[in-house]
Amino acid sequence: MSIFLLFSFLLLLSPSAFASETGKIGINYGRIADNLPTPEKVVQLLKTQGITRAKLYDTDSAVLKAFSGSGIALTVALPNENLTAAAGSQSFTDTWVQNNILPYQPDSKIVAIAVGNEANVDSKVTSYVVPAMSNMYASLQKYSVSDIKISSPISFSVLQNSYPSSAGSFKEELMESFIQPMLEFLKKTKSYMMVNAYPFFAYSGNSDEISLDYALFKPNSGVVDLGNGLKYESLFEAQLDAVYAAMALLKYNDLKIVVTETGWPSQGDENEIGAGSSNAAAYNGNLIKRVLTGGGTPLRPNDTLDVYLFALFNENQKPGPTSERNYGLFYPTEQKVYDVPLTMSKVVAEGPVAEAVAPPVAEAVAPVAEAVAPVAGVVAPVSDSKVVVPKVGQSWCVANEAVEQKKLQAGLDWACGQGKADCRPIQPGATCYNPGNLVAHASYAFNSYYQKMTRASGTCEFGGAAHVVTQTPKFGSCVFPTGN
What we know:
By secondary structure, the protein is α/β, with parallel strands linked by helices. The protein is built from 14 helices and 17 strands. The strands form 5 sheets. It has a 9-stranded parallel beta sheet. Strands 7-8 form a two-stranded antiparallel ribbon. Strands 10-11 form a two-stranded antiparallel sheet. It starts with a helix and ends in a 15-residue tail after the last strand. Pfam families: Glyco_hydro_17, X8. Keywords: Disulfide bond, Glycosidase, Hydrolase, Signal. One of its GO terms (biological process) is defense response. GO terms for molecular function: glucan endo-1,3-beta-D-glucosidase activity.
């Protein structure tokens, strides 16, 4: 490509194509699967693809060792189950840093620690997040580690209002115990807000009101925010500006946002409107182009966009609907689910990606370990459950008592968190808290999600942790709701 053509093409990409600094693309490396490549192979895959930033969900020793000397910048995580201990004692975070950071730094290039993940949706741990962050920061200082940022990813549900973007505000019940202390900590330590943003969820739940082109960064007429007069051409940027507006309302105008998760599923259940490989390719491809060509959001045009795609692989053991197991850019075989450019050189070489599509079906067939079966026109992984949802009559979704507790807990956490099930009745002192055991609580949460999703096929799986019954569940005096 000649210098003139390259110059002309970059101008077409974005008015901010020659910004002094462009955004950065990273990727989430989750491992809730039993068929993934070794960490060493994963590192080689990332290097081959030109990915220089990755986010982990723990501090697994084998994984951190594999990244040693790779040059790939890592964000590691303290899981939610450790928040209480980390908040209660600096000696815990001292030990955690000694075991999980010091042996690998600087060779493994750890640049940030995510303390918890989407803790704003779990009232049992929300109040522990900032004390845990403070203790973690103190421990890093104690051992003279000053180049690692501390933050905690929040989900978009942290907002009370998100439309229009200029009216963005945080939920009042989270302000005192979570939001304000976190913002103050981030400002004090010169860190940044971690946000998980998924336009897919907004579109899937409101496809009659939201343009698909608007959700996928494709050319569209845009949406004008009557509150500030700014025009938005993508739902993603509107979501980020709603968070920026909420922070500005509290006088934290100088904090930056890093998007720690965003993505689009290549498969979904029949009620997950918009899921599909072509849409996933368009969303991620156009997002990458948007990030790498510089510039920020309409509200914060001078801030670059730093984004971690979700996710590297399809993870076959994730609970929840089919989409949860199909966010990956790659199959566990390291074959691409669909093709998108991941670096600026590939963006330039391949040209505009507004109409990015998945490879032909014959090239995107999952390996045998991820066999698929058609369900009402939607390709979805075969369920381990042998139960067929009745077409008529009442049915409920309950926990499979035969699976291990870890799997039940993961399903419960997802249902009450990202699945947005109504889990208030199983909180201490509430009507369905007793009997206070995991099977009972998971059953209530699974059923709440199942009924909310109108008992659609595939919504009572949770990775094999749940199944459908046609007799009213009996757990103490708790009454399990069902739809009409």
